[in-house]
Each structure stands twice: as C-alpha cells, then as structure tokens.
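Hi everyone,

Forwarding the result from last night's run.
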Amino acid sequence: MTAIDVSGMIDAVGARLRALRMRHDFTLTELSERTGISVSTLSRLEAGERRASLDLLLPIATVFDVGLDALVGVETSRDPRVHGTPITRHGRTWVALSRHGDGPTAFKVTVPAAPAKHRVEQRVHAGFDWFFVLSGRVRLALGDDEHIIEAGEAVEFDTLIPHGTASAGSGPAEILHLMSRDGERVHLRDV
C-alpha cells in the first residue's frame, strides 16, 4: 500500500477548482455570490496562496454538485460498477448509469403509461438531449410536432426547442437518456 501525499493533494486543489470554475463558466464574483466565500479568498485558493479547508470546500462542492473527491483528487473506488439509486420525479423513475462528472450523465428512465389524448408537458432549457428507447414506445413532443419513437430508435435534439415525452403504449416505456448537467438539473430537480 502506498502512502497518500495529503499535502500534495491539498496543494493541487487550487488548479482543480479553477478548472472546474472555468468549465462551468463562472467568474470569481459569481462563485463568491453562490458560496458566500469572498472573491479574494477564492482567488488565493485558486492561486495556491491559501490552503483548502473543509469550510471552504463544502460550499464549493455543493455549488458545482460534485463530491469533495473531485476537488481534492481522491479516487474513491476502483470498482467500476455504478450503483444508481432510483429517483422518482413527476411519475418517472430515473436511475443513474454513470457517475456524476462534468460531461453528460446516463440514466435509465421509466416513463409511465399516459392516456392517449394526454397532452405532453414541454420544457425548455439549455443543452442537447439524446435518448434511446429500450422498450415500449415513446411520444416525443418537439415544439408543434409529435413523433412516435419505437424500441431500438434514438433521437437527439436541441433542448431550446420545447420538448417532452410520454409513453405511447398502454404500459410504461424505458429509455436510455444522456443529458448534460443543465438538463439533469431541469429533469431531476424542481427548478
């Protein structure tokens, strides 16, 4: 077993923080407003002039919706399996199939049956959505158009177009859904 270089890990937090902030297109002022940490403290932390502490890292990790391990560079597990916990929102069950990171997140989504005449609720948000129908049939409302997507078919669309889905059959449908962090916030949280 190798010794952990804690000092080196703490020293590298600044570079990780700056990279994470830049990927999310935040200014120091915006991050300060969201965390309650002063701009000068954040700047010194990124520059390596201030040591990272738990009271600084926790609000930052919360804003970026990442674990502390992402900020300090600790590998939490060598087990490649993803153990997603089902989340039910608006009648749909979402199970994460990938670990949360900066890129797209994969989910298996169970879309419940809906009456055939049921109007599909549509939303708009930044990003792109992609899904593959694993089983069943899915009604995709995309602006003024509606499409029936069959098992084995995939779709991709700009999420600035009003969009929504419902099961097109008498039973639920299952889809493999890839989305960005923006899409995840819209779909899994009441924003």
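The helical segments are 6-11, 13-23, 28-35, 39-47, 54-64, 68-72, 181-188.

Cheers,
N.
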